[in-house]
Specification:
Elements (H helix, E strand, L loop, with lengths): L2 H16 L32 H6 L28 E9 L4 E9 L11 E5 L13 H9 L7 E5 L16 H8 L1 H16 L9 E6 L1 H12 L6 E5 L30 E7 L8 H11 L5 E5 L8 H10 L5
Parallel strand pairs: 3-4, 3-5, 5-6, 6-7, 7-8
Antiparallel strand pairs: 1-2, 2-4
């Protein structure tokens, strides 16, 4: 892959921390969704919105039921809602032959007496296990408001190398391979470890995965590689490399970018900002190949979004409100 593209992908891996067809129609017309989210009652400027004010916010959707812009009040902490609890810990990776850091978000009112479905969230290039934890605000609010099921959210460090602690280049095949190797690490190490530490439900109907940028690429890849394990898959602004292109050999041939009969994800989503200058047209190629292969999925573009929010939050909101139901 070209160095200039991967330079931007590296930056993309850090955006979330800094900022915190079957499916849907494609549009680049920002005016179509202008003023899409309307709030009836505004909170005082010096106070966060309350739960009642969150309920009052109108969520406008396109013809396919997608909230292209997530509710604004869901993006903030709320004094009258119980937040989830973030656990930063580590586990031993047999794939990498060393200890690896990981972050786990427990739902509000987590109890060992209950079992919870699991959502894995993958970060972007040059990110780490903390790069996507800003999403905990949106997810916790959705759970509290009844828009999402109670769930455990796992943020693994998806650079899976025995010899390197982090990627060192913008477009080195060695680094691509380390990211692709996260598929093995998640399945062989993270998933078994998680069920020994937390009260989790097992089975593909209780397991979801999503990711941003390089993490979106790996979310699609692990979903195709292990459809028996993941029943829900989403990619926000996914990086190239799942299927062949002029810069990357691809992890799957185009004709293999599909799912066995009976194992298509219950929810499969891809979205990207229409102003994304990093992954550019590559997400649309995934959409086109899935469509050609007859795979049901949601696809939409977020007007005005570059490589980051609101595309990340748009994908996450629409995904979380549909999984485990």
């Amino acid at each position: 892959m070209g160095k200039s593209l991967f330079k931007f992908l590296c930056i993309g891996g850090l955006i979330m921390t800094a900022a915190m067809n079957t499916g849907c129609s494609t549009t680049s017309n920002e005016a179509k969704y202008a003023g899409q989210v309307k709030t009836e009652n505004k909170a005082p400027s010096n106070e966060p919105p309350s739960a009642e004010e969150m309920k009052a916010e109108k969520i406008m959707r396109n013809d396919d039921g997608i909230a292209v812009y997530p509710p604004k009040t869901y993006m903030n902490n709320h004094w009258d809602l119980t937040p989830g609890r973030l656990v930063h810990t580590n586990y031993y990776s047999s794939v990498c032959e060393k200890n690896k850091n990981i972050a786990v978000l427990l739902p509000p009112d987590y109890s060992e007496e209950k079992k919870y479905p699991v959502l894995y969230v993958f970060h972007g290039y040059w990110g780490n296990e903390m790069s996507m934890v800003g999403t905990q605000v949106l997810i916790s609010n959705m759970i509290n408001m009844g828009d999402a099921k109670e769930m455990i959210v796992v943020y693994p460090f998806i650079y899976s190398s025995k010899t390197k602690a982090q990627c060192t280049g913008f477009g080195e095949p060695e680094d691509w391979a380390a990211y692709d190797n996260c598929i093995n690490e998640v399945v062989e190490d993270v998933m078994p470890w998680l069920k020994t530490q937390f009260s989790v439900l097992e089975g593909r109907e209780n397991t979801a995965v999503c990711g941003f940028s390089m993490g979106g690429r790996e979310a699609l890849s692990i979903g195709v590689a292990h459809p028996e394990l993941f029943g829900y898959v989403a990619a926000m602004a996914p990086a190239p490399g799942v299927i062949p292109n002029t810069m990357h050999p691809g992890q799957f041939k185009e004709e293999d970018f599909k799912f066995p009969e009976g194992l298509t994800p219950e929810v499969l989503m891809i979205c990207v900002g229409d102003a994304d200058g990093v992954v550019t047209f590559y997400p649309s190629t995934y959409h086109a190949v899935l469509k050609k292969n007859g795979v049901d999925h949601f696809w939409w573009m977020v007007p005005g979004s570059d490589h980051g929010d609101p595309a990340i939050s748009s994908g996450l909101f629409n995904f979380c409100e549909r999984i485990f139901k």
